[in-house]
Design goal:
Layout lengths: L5 E5 L5 H16 L3 E3 L1 H4 L3 H11 L2 H21 L4 E4 L7 H4 L1
Parallel strand pairs: 1-2, 1-3
Helix pairs in contact: 3-4
């Protein structure tokens, strides 16, 4: 095993079960020496960002702006800095993970 292997963990986080599983698997991987980027832990606080954007943008502009920011954070930083992507495709499949 390469102790410097960077893993981006793509997974849904719409329920408590999903977020718990993501953290539990991340803990196992990190205990084995891997470095894991888990967006629900290592990203930004969605609610705060949405509130900040709502103060700056028209209501119809907020959702598209959030989607672009999340995409560029994930693809431009997290995935780009990772050696591999681990995708949890448990049901129901999150289309953001599958793409």
């Amino acid at each position: 095993m390469d102790d410097n292997l960077q893993i981006y963990f793509a997974a849904a986080l719409f329920s408590g079960r999903e977020t718990y599983f993501n953290i539990a698997l991340t803990n196992i991987l990190e205990d084995e020496g891997y470095t894991v980027k888990l967006p629900q832990r290592d990203g930004f606080e969605f609610g705060r960002l949405e509130a900040s954007l709502s103060d700056l943008l028209e209501p119809e502009e907020v959702t598209p702006a959030l989607q672009k920011i999340i995409y560029f954070l994930d693809m431009g930083i997290f995935v780009a800095e990772s050696d591999m992507v681990l995708a949890n495709l448990d049901e129901p499949i999150d289309e953001g993970v599958a793409i």
